[in-house]
Amino acid sequence: MFQAAVKTLSSASTSSVSRGISSSVRLYCEKTLRVSEALSGADLGSNVTVKGWVRSVRPQKTNLFLHVNDGSSLQSLQVVAGSELNDPSLTFGSAVEVTGILKKSPRQTQPVELEAEQIHVVGKCNPLDFPFKIKDRHSLEYIRQFPHLRCRTNTFSSLLRIRSEATAAIHSYFKENGFLQIHTPIITSNDCEGAGELFQVEPSGPEHEEDENYFSVPAFLTVSGQLHLEVMSGAFSRVYTFGPTFRAENSQSRRHLAEFYMVEAEVSFTQSLEDLTKVMEGVFRSATEHVLARCAEDVDLFHKHVTPGHRGRVEAMMKRKFPVITYSEAIDILNSSSETFVFPTNWGCDLQTEHEKHLVKHCGNTPVFVIDYPYDLKPFYARDNLDGPQHTAAAVDLLVPGVGELCGGSLREERLDLLSARLEAVGLEETYSWYLDLRRFGSVPHGGFGLGFDRFLQCVLGVDNIKDVIPFPRFSHSCPL
Predict the structure, then answer these.
(1) Are 390 and 374 in contact (CB under 8 A)?
(2) pLDDT tens for each residue of 164-202
């Protein structure tokens, strides 16, 4: 029966060809490959189809050479064709579909090449109008002007592959270490840190009454998922979230975005900052090692052409255990420095970026933990160390080279009387009555932190401007897409 079916199929195929309908038959012998698969030697000797965008065109008298890339690899696939397949619309930036035989390349510079039988231009591109030129190496500042097109450059496509792998690595770390992922809300009525830098959410349209709140109370885009994670830490010992957060800070600096991505975690049954620093260091090391191993070519592009020499700095910081200093020790280091700082360095001041970078340099250009900050500098939820005469909270920041603060966290105040007194002092006891309930019903000592994902990428790649490590940067007075 099987042989009869094969014979019928063969007859049908022959009949189709005789009628000129060859495309339906080719579906049985062609396979669509990604460029990365083709370069790995998959289906060598087979008739395959590759779809992507032209990175270079080199017509000759008898041959045509193309390099085609589909975003799956930094390297492009060389296509070799007869000159009869050349087409005026076959230009740099055009989208193509190429069918042919995948063969070993006679050239040592590339493992394989595609001997084209058909080339179909799917989407034309005028290279004169296209803002990126075939032989130019464009700076990050230049390509930032074209947020809708910059993903087509080698540099930014490498960044996006690295970003994707780093995301997967972070999720893997938390899963392997027993954390439960929680999807915390983007729209919330809570101002987690009391900074007031929030985007308020309101419905639009003529039917909306100005004095009416859609959610009955004012609602905002989240600045942090921490308080929702604290809710979950009353039932799960290890939780985390990874998503967008928003700050309505009127800044166009290299360090700030209005929309950025945060990794946040909460650990129950702990009264030790060391338990938090272990997780911070673990997720940093795990994600960095994963990116260096899985995105070697893409990372090398940055370390060779964008930030030369940075690879050595990354490898050096990965070899050392991250040191821990207290805030008081940090102030002593700053005050004993010969460097002149713009901002004051007296005990009780908030550490600025210039201070953070100096501390990192002082500690050997390696990530460093600063713990036990002044109590008055930290939000209401930070655990009181009940010390003196310098009153501190059990808070911790991770400072990293080139960036400054990467992580910020604390033990949370689980003692109902102390938390209630602090909320009452700032007039928030009624607003956060639900938060006090968490301490009334089965409360446990716990703590957590947030890690700026975009700043993490800056640190690993050595990129100076945070706008160059996120697909679509949002910042004050700018919304390009």
Answers:
(1) yes
(2) 999 999 999 999 999 999 999 999 987 665 555 899 898
470-473 CB contacts, 8 Å cutoff, 24+ apart: 470/163, 470/257, 470/260, 470/261, 471/151, 471/160, 471/163, 472/147, 473/144, 473/147, 473/257
Rounded Cα gap, residues 93 and 55, in angstroms: 6
The DSSP code sequence of 155-189 is: HHHHHHHHHHHHHHHHHHHHHHTTPEE----SEES
E strands of 163-258, at which residues? Answer: 180-181, 187-188, 200-201, 219-221, 238-246
pLDDT value of position 42? 83
pLDDT category at 250 given cuts 50, 70, 90 is confident
Q: Which runs of consecutive H residues, i.e. helices, occur in 19-134?
A: 23-26, 35-39
One DSSP character per residue, 60-82 reads -SSEEEEEEE-SS-SSPEEEEEE
Q: Which two tokens stand for residue 200?
A: 């308020």
3-state SS of the chain: helix, strand, coil percent to 5? 35, 25, 40
User: Of all helices (H) and strands (E), which one includes residue 123?
Assistant: strand 112-123
**What's this model's pTM, rounded to 2 decimal places?**
0.90
Average pLDDT over residues 109-114: 90
Model confidence pLDDT, tens digit, residues 47-65:
999 999 999 999 999 999 9
Q: How far apart are CA 306 and CA 309, in angstroms?
A: 10
Q: Are 291 and 162 within 8 A, CB to CB?
A: yes
pLDDT value at residue 195: 52
Residue 470 carries which DSSP code? Answer: S
Provide the residue count of the chain: 481
Q: Which residues contact 466 (CB under 8 A, 6 or more apart)?
A: 254, 255, 256, 257, 260, 454, 455, 458, 473
Give the residue carrying structure tokens 């199929």.
Answer: 9
Distances (CA, A) of 316 to 294, 312, 322, 425: 19, 6, 11, 46
**152: closest CA among 293, 160, 170?**
160
Q: Do 253 and 260 contact (CB within 8 A), yes or no?
A: no
